[in-house]
Structures are given as C-alpha cells and as structure tokens.
Design goal:
Elements lengths: L2 E5 L17 H9 L9 E4 L5 H5 L4 H10 L6 E4 L2 E3 L3 H20 L5 E4 L21 H13 L4 E5 L6 H7 L5 E8 L18 E6 L5 H19 L3 E6 L16 H18 L4 E5 L5 H15 L3
Helix pairs in contact: 1-9, 4-5, 7-8, 8-9
Bound molecules: zinc ion.
C-alpha cells in the first residue's frame, strides 16, 4: 500500500499556554513513532498552505481575514474559551487545511492509495464562521469540498472517531445531501451536540454516541452495525477520516477506554468498506489526542493499518 504522510515544522509555531492540552509536542510525538523500520516505506511530504479558493469553499473570506487579523504579534490571544491564537497560528492553520487538499490531490489522482495528515490546530469543531474547541478552519470540510470541486467527486463520506462530536463538520454539511457525516463520540461530552436524533436536513448525518467507559469493542460494534453499512449505502467517491485519538484510556479530556490497537482495528474496518465502494481512497486528518505518548502510539497503529500491515 502506498501511504502518504504529511506534516510541517511550522505546526510547532502555533503556541498554547503551558497547561493547554493542544500542545506543539503532539506532532513530534507522532513523527517519532513513525521513525521505525516498519514505516520505512511511508511516503513523506510537507504540507502546503491552502489557497484562498480552497479555503473559501467552506469559510467566507471575511472569517479567514478575521482569524489572520486576530493573531497577535507576541504572546497569546484567546478568541473563545480554550481556542487561542499565537503569532504562528494563522500560518499553521492554513498549512493544516492545505495538507488536507494536498492529501486529496494525491489520493484522488491515484499517486498514493491513502494519506494521513499530522497537523495542528485540529479542525472538526470549526464551523464556517466560528472558531471553537481548539479549531479555526475545518480541514475535513475543506478536503470534502476540494474533492468535489477539483476532482469531480459527487459524494464524500466523512467518518469521525475523535472522542468529541465534530459539531463544526455536522453544521457545515447538515443540509447537504452530497456529504455524509458519521461520528462516534462520548455522549454528553464537549461540545454537547451529536445526539442520535440529529440526522441532518438531508438525512445525511449519523451520530452514534457511546457511554462513558466504552471500549474499542463497543466502538467496533458501532462501526459494524451502524456506521459502516451507512457509509457503504451512501457510495462515496472518497472517505475522509477525522482521526482524533482522544478516546484512548489515557487521554485527559475524556472517559472512553480505547487502547492503541483499537485504532488499527477501526482503520482496517474502514479500509475494507473503502475498498468496496471507493477504490480504497481514504484521506485521514488528525483531530484530537492529548496524552502525548498515547497519541504517538495510537497514530502509529492507525498509519500502520493504512499501510496494509
Ligand atoms: Zn477530540
């Protein structure tokens, strides 16, 4: 399997206060776990900045400008509770969205089979005009729109296994029958959305909340019984994955009980469906994951599965 791995040194210039969970070290923790022998065939490249055209398919120009202007020259500035800008935030966020587009380009043209972008800030809480939950631009949404606008994809499925509900992604697509959004997440956790009753104006949203304490077996059952049949029935041309690793039992922000190997199992289950319906095309984008060591191990298990191991 040809698997593309995207990252960029500028992600570390998006700074956070000392006790903030979304720290620059998160990306290095993943990169270090991908240095071993098992990953020698990984195709590595650098992210590129998103273009104005690409980002404005999701976020109005005035909102993009608002984020750029808000970023302080020195120090930190909070734009909502825990969502904080430093001087390097805007460039990092544009690289993270651009990486999503680059991954779509390489996967849709068949240069690679699948791709994983290790980027920060994350994206799935950002809606078209609102930053929140550590997120500024919604990279999964930008990826889906890029696949449609630049590569002729008719339908894109976004699957989100981050422990938090991707309220921004749901909000962006909640009346769009061409994009299917499916999420497993811990019930009643931040941001408080993602009830099973939220099905979208076009019937294109599927939320499967899991009770606190649920482990990987519960998640796999949710995938096999609910998420994967719905994705297969949607017949997407591309599968975008919002890959957060904060359902790991060691994560400080949530109370699910996944272990790193569960991410390989869930990834293989997604790959099996992608093989059947969209030529195996998967673009996976990092979202959360806040225990540094568990994040590195979990992302490595995910990438190893994408590589076909
Ligand atoms: Zn999360």
């Amino acid at each position: 399997m040809r698997t593309l791995f995207l990252s960029h040194p500028r992600y570390r210039d998006h700074l956070a206060p000392p006790n903030h969970p979304e720290q620059p070290e998160r990306i290095a923790a993943i990169e270090q776990r991908l240095e071993g022998e098992a990953f020698q065939h990984l195709i590595r490249d650098l992210a590129r900045p998103v273009t104005d055209e690409e980002i404005q398919r999701v976020h109005p120009a005035a909102y993009v400008d608002h984020i750029r202007i808000q970023a302080p020259h020195d120090g930190l500035m909070s734009i909502s509770n825990d969502t904080i800008l430093s001087n390097g935030t805007y460039e990092a966020a544009r690289l993270a969205a651009g990486a999503a587009c680059l991954a779509v380009d390489e996967v849709m043209t068949g240069l690679v089979d699948n791709a994983f972008s290790a980027a920060r800030p994350p994206g799935h809480h950002a809606s078209a005009r609102h930053a929140m939950g550590f997120c500024f631009f919604n990279h999964a949404a930008v990826a889906a729109r890029h696949a449609q606008a630049a590569h002729g994809a008719e339908r894109v499925a976004i699957v989100d296994f981050d422990v938090h509900h991707g309220n921004g992604t749901q909000n962006i697509f909640q009346a769009d029958a061409t994009v299917f959004y499916a999420s497993i997440h811990q019930a009643q956790l931040f941001p408080g959305t993602g009830e099973a009753s939220e099905t979208g104006a076009a019937g294109n949203i599927l939320n499967v909340p899991l009770n606190a304490g649920a482990n990987g077996a519960v998640a796999l059952a949710a995938f096999n019984d609910r998420i994967l049949p719905a994705v297969a029935a949607f017949r997407p041309d591309l599968l975008v994955l919002s890959a957060g690793f904060d359902a790991h039992f060691r994560d400080p922000l949530a109370d699910l009980n996944f272990v790193e190997g569960d991410y390989a199992v869930l990834t293989r289950a997604l790959m099996e469906v992608a093989d059947r319906v969209c030529g195996g095309r998967i673009v996976s984008l990092l979202e959360g994951g806040y225990d540094i060591d568990a994040l590195g191990l979990s992302a490595a298990a995910h990438v190893s599965a994408l590589m076909g191991h």
